[in-house]
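pasting for the record
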Amino acid sequence: MLIIVEGRYVHGAGGVFIADEVQVGLGRVGKHFWSFQMDGEDFVPDIVTMGKPMGNGHPVACVVTTKEIAEAFSSSGMEYFNTYGGNPVSCAVGLAVLDIIENEDLQRNAMRVGNYLTELLKKQKAKHTLIGDIRGVGLFIGIDLVKDHLKRTPATAEAQHIIYKMKEKRVLLSADGPHRNVLKIKPPMCFTEEDAKFMVDQLDGVLTVLEEATGTKSESVTSENIPCKTKMLKEAHVELLRDSTTDSRENPSRKRNGMCADTHSLLSKRLKT
């Protein structure tokens, strides 16, 4: 998730501060256009990297740095070459994206809808014991899932299950954190309050069924079909926890975006609700 580092400490120690704005830049944090501005309006990074959002799907990226650093890199003898760097098409796309962000006031939308979404999620935290924390800013939010609030035991398998169930409901989430137990929410900048309400309603339903299946307490009202559903899900979840691993050192390529091939296969066979 978003980590704010006191850039002044880095500069004070003689370090070079690199601000990665690939996911959080271009207005996503709402209050600021760049996330590094949260470190103080007068703070200026040495290097800023940005990409994805610049092209709204078109492959484009950018690095901004100081003249001193650029000249130092150039004089190092290391050659940098990019066949398509700075081509007119990508430049036109980038300018169009900036126009849309400004004309449709998407930065303000990120702040308004992000605050609304955060409030909805906080209500879910009070309702579902799997939710350990809600954190983030603007339309960049994380839901920390834990099996024990005191020990902060990461609910890795549960997070993966939720991601796949939400995908079935046409909501895309991903996992983050050292233990892949944080649901990362970073929707399109045009995300609306109606979209936020839909997403949270779907998440509420998935969490309710999962918590009933695993025996964790939830304040949701059960239906007459829950006993049978609970039995099926509990058996599947026990098998999921036995066969899947929460070791974050496992091959990372199998866990990209919270996905695990073996776990997905198991879930698709046993967790049809």
